[in-house]
Amino acid sequence: MHIAHYIPLFPFLAFVINIFVGRRLKIGSAYLAVGTCVLSFLCSLKVWQGFLQGERSYSLGTWLLIQGKPLDFGIIVDPLTIMMLLIVSFIGTFILIYSIGYMHDDPRFSRYFAYISLFMASMLGLVLADNFILLLIFWEGVGLCSYFLIAFWHERPAAAKAGIKAFVTTRIGDTGFLVGMLLLFFTTGTFHFSDFQFLRGPEPVLTLAAILIFAGAIGKSAQFPLHVWLPDAMEGPTPISALIHAATMVAAGVYLVARCFPLFAAHPAALQTVAVIGGISALMAATIAVVNNDIKRVLAYSTISQLGLMMLGLGVGGLSAGTFHLMTHAFFKALLFLCAGSIIHAVGIQDIRQMGGLFSKMKVTSVTFCIGALALAGVPPFAGFWSKDEILLTAWNNHHPVLFAVALLTSLLTSFYMARLIFLVLFGKPRSELHAHESPAVMTIPLVVLSVFAALAGFIGSPLKEATGAYEGSQVMMLASTMVSLTGLGLAYLIYIRQMALPQSLLMSCQGLKQLLLNKYYIDEIYEVVLVKPILRLCQGSFSFDMKIVDGLVNGVANVTQFCSGVLRRTQTGLVQNYLLVQVFGVVLLIMWLLKI
Amino acid sequence: MIPILSTLIFLPLLGAIIIFCLPPRLEKSIRFLSLLVTGVVLAVSVCLVMHFDPAVGGASNSMQFVEYHPWLHNLHIWYFLGVDGLSLPLVFLTALLGFLACLSSYEIKERVKEYFIFYLLLMTGMIGTFLALDLVLFYIFWEIVLIPMYFLIGIWGGPRREYAAVKFFLYTLAGSVLMLLGILTAYFLSTPHTFNMLQLGLSGFDLRWQIILFLAFFLAFAVKVPVFPFHTWLPDAHVEAPTPVSVLLAGVLLKMGGYGLLRVCFPIFKAAAFVLAPVLAMLGVVNIVYGAWVAFAQTDFKKMVAYSSVSHMGFVLLGAASLTVTGFNGALLGMFNHGIITGGMFLLVGVLYTRAHTRELNRFGGLTNSMPFYAFCLTFLSLASLGLPGLSGFVGEFLSLVGAFKPYPWLVVAAGIGLVMTVGYFLSMIGRVLLGALNPKCVPYVDMNTRELVTIVPLMAIVLIVGFYPQSVLNFQQEAMQGLAHLFKL
After folding, report:
1. Between chain A's N and C termini, which has fewer beta carbons within 10 Å?
2. What percent of chain B has pLDDT over 70?
3. Per the CB < 8 Å rule, is B366 touching A66?
């Protein structure tokens, strides 16, 4: 066993203990989860150190023989994995600490920490796996934990339903993923990521395989057209939204594309698909976030949009840009969700139209919230600015003007809706009776820590820079993107703080558009009509078919037999005279036949 | 040396005879005796597994622990038993489920003596079917299974037990009549005349006869698997059968069909298998998708699990029809896993039924709060059943899909629909039974007791072990599957 193998094992141990005896541990179950998470973080640092000394990958023996080829419990160690390990275990630790405060009086306190430990184990395993099959195991594992945690408060029907929706929707993508994986295996004979540089095979088949693999990423990262589960996933506890549905699990799709990047890069059509899907998701989700009134859902749509931006970054060829944004986003989006959680914890509602003026009552939360928002909006020098800038730059340099415009427009919308959120929640006058109070230190300290990273993580630069050769930051691009961000902020300021008449009347004039956006482009409704209802009807129809036709045929055969024997039974009258008559008749016939009459 | 295979087969029969001689009022002793007998059978089967040499293989003779004695010499019928990588997992599965279902049979309160006589007789038939290598012997054990099963459903079943029992009996019998004809035809066509399965595999029939015989055997096996459209006896039989009988029905009886396919149809009628494999694969996908659709529409818990069996056995068929090592491995491992998982599922349905006396999914709700152990077990097995990677169900399905991908890529894509639907109906079942607010009707239900936990925990442990270390089973079956696939290498 190498030290890297222990990284997922610690949280798994916490899961096992918590699921069976967690109730007796009470608050201890939380300390256990936090402690194992810290251990994983320390091990991740150790692995990093080992990597710098030249260690690369480790195997723990064969898991399964496929077509005679061994499939190992193998671990890959490269800058991408190390970055993910550090992000997941670091942010995870602080979200777990925050959860102690957030979930303190929940009756299923220990259960919560059991699930979240299982999630940590799966997520850490996912980024360590060196082949598709192992990755798939953890991939489904994180999906499962996501299901458990979305449906954590299952007494609310909406939560139970959202859990199923999330699992089934991602499974659709995963089926494509599985087929793509098999296609790749039969074309190239490998499941291992380390072989990806040397893939040989027919161009169209590999392109198709890459696109199918991307389908898995679409489901997991909630990209169009499988994005519908993420907003509903906000039914889960808010720290879960921060950890799973913002910082880590949903980024697994982006991680997958980054992990298979040599495959995508060698097939332009596949790469183009990634970029276009990313662009559509980024723009679509950003427009919806502009009008949404639920504090968590605005952030959820923003997550879809930002993940789309990462996909776009990867799709235009910017491996380092996409992963860099993944990293900065993990910090500031986790921060934003935790702040939202702190606010919800304090006021008990999620509708931003009823909030307002919280700044004076919740100083720490408000300041950190603003830092997160500025980072997301891409205002220099906060983290989001640097990574977003790199994506814009890559799109421009690699000659994708349309995608560049999409990314720029998304940035504008992003800074606008974040400013709107800040202004409506923290400033102005309270629009309803709110008894807000600052959250306890166990919740605010993680906020402060994460806000430091949200502010400064951009200066680290992309961890993959050396690996891929980054572009020099162009001053023009920085200026342009800063201008765009400030424009968005300014517009929101004019509308929501100064309440200027002109933009408001402009808004009033496009009510149709607003309705369209408020209803999320009616995508959920379309799916309901086009997919869900027909499938349910198909199932019912199959059942009737089974009962009436298939089984009817079986019973029909039985009935026919019974009917025939009923008819034949009448010949058995039991009267000797009848039998004698038939006998005589038969003898007569026989004689006639013999004499050939 | 003790003939270990004969011991396995006839120990339950001996138990049945002893119980037959006991007065019916000694219910406790009868129960205990049956448990003891099935326990010893399980222990012997574990010994068998320990002494089995997984490395013995090769195309011609991989049988171990062979017992070969003349029986009806004039008719060339031999008492011929043997075990290889194909039968070993299924024998172990039978012994394990036989023991656990016997434990669960403590719930049977009426006519205990007769029940256990039939139960032990059933065990003899099932184990014999997996070990017999002479077609006549195989047929006899195959038919022995039918009779106790008929009575177990017909006497101890639910309200429509007679209908279900007769349907089960006639349907399977119709299939086995064809098999009998097939056996006789194969005997007379072979030179020299023989019922020996291994020898029959070496005698080349011409293609026309092969196809006819393949179909005759296949129909018998298809009813048992069950393959669409011969599956409608299954939901009826399951709904009416008492819990332990359901466990054996789903866990073992269905495997007899798949086993027959791999033991008789494929190796003896190779050329026909080549011709018919695409049809089998297509039927397999129909099973997967159609079974999932119908399962989705169920409101009866047991019927849902029954149709999920139809769906899962489709993967077995698809894997087998691929005619590759990987596919065969997937099919056999899939059968083993399905036996463990679905056997466990039926135990869990039974747990709920003894408390609620209903299986309507909509009559439950919120049980996770009042029955946490039950909720854990049900969730665990559902996840295994829907093919969550890391649990055993996934490995079998995955290997089947890998095996089938090369010859039938589009069928694998179509099977993907089944994968998504399976997640849908299992999660919606969990949603209706375990989640939500606690249904007031469910308040008095107590959590699983020790006996119930003892029956389910070993199964869950196996699910976890096989899921994390599939080679634990695959190592045993590897050689036999390699030999089988070798027959189809061009």
Report:
1. C
2. 99
3. no
Spatial separation of the C-alpha atoms in residues B352 and B103, rounded to whole Å: 16
N-term to C-term CA, chain A: 99
Using CA atoms, how far apart are residues B212 and B234, in angstroms rounded to an integer?
A: 26
Provide the whole-model pTM.
0.90
Domain parsing of chain B, residue ranges: 269-482
The DSSP code for A427 is: S
**Which residues, including other chains, have CB under 8 Å from residue A567's CB and lie 6 or more apart?**
none
- Helices then strands (H, E): number in chain B? 21, 2
What is the b/e burial string over A140-155, where b = at least 16 CB atoms within 10 angstroms of the residue's CB? Answer: bbbbbbbbbbbbbbbe
Tell me the residue type at A399.
H
pLDDT, tens only, A550-593: 888 888 888 898 899 888 888 887 888 888 888 899 999 999 88
Q: Is A597 on the interface with B (CB under 8 A)?
A: no
Three-class SS state of B465? helix
Strand (E) or helix (H) holding B251: none
A228 Cβ partners below 8 Å, 6+ apart?
Answer: A165, A169, A523, A524, A527
Query: How many C-beta atoms surround the C-beta of residue A287 within 10 A?
Result: 20
**Closest residue by Cα to residue A25 from A145, A147, A155, A112:** A112
Whether the pLDDT of residue A466 is over 60: the answer is no
Q: What is the chain A residue with the closest CA to B419?
A: A175
DSSP B66: E
What are the pLDDT digits (tens) for A199-220? 777 888 899 999 999 999 999 9
**Helices H, strands E: what count in chain A?**
26, 2
Which residue from B233, B231, B251 is spatially nearest to B243, judged by alpha carbons?
A: B251
State the CB neighbour count (10 A cutoff) for residue A527.
16
**Which of A185, A539, A553 faces B293 most closely, judged by CB atoms?**
A539
| pLDDT digit string, tens, across residues A71-94 | 777 888 888 888 999 999 999 999
Where do we find the tokens 């007791």? B449
Cα distance between residue B82 and residue B132, in whole Å: 7
For residue B150, is pLDDT > 90? yes
What pLDDT is stored for residue A467 in this prediction?
Answer: 44
Q: How far apart are CA B60 and CA A514, in angstroms?
A: 74
Q: Which of A96, A133, A138 is nearest to A8 (CA)?
A: A138
Please give the pLDDT value at position A469: 44
Residues of A in contact with B232 (CB under 8 A): 546, 550-551, 554
For residue range B252-278, list pLDDT tens digits in order: 999 999 999 999 999 899 889 999 999
Look at B431 and A136 and tell me if their CB atoms are within 8 Å.
no
The most distant pair of C-alpha atoms in chain A lies apart, rounded to whole Å, by: 122
Query: Which residue is listed with tokens 């999320």?
Result: A520
How far CA A430 is from CA of A360, A436, B348, in Å, comes to: 11, 10, 53
| Residue owning tokens 């910017």 | A318
A137 close to A52: Cβ distance less than 8 angstroms: no
CB atoms near residue B376 (< 10 Å)? 16
Of the candidates B232, B423, B474, the beta carbon closest to that of A167 is on: B423
Please judge whether B423 and A140 are an interchain contact, meaning their C-beta atoms are less than 8 angstroms apart: no
CB atoms within 10 A of CB A199: 19
Return the amino acid letter for B395.
Answer: V
Output the pLDDT for position A462: 58
B33 close to B19: Cβ distance less than 8 angstroms: yes
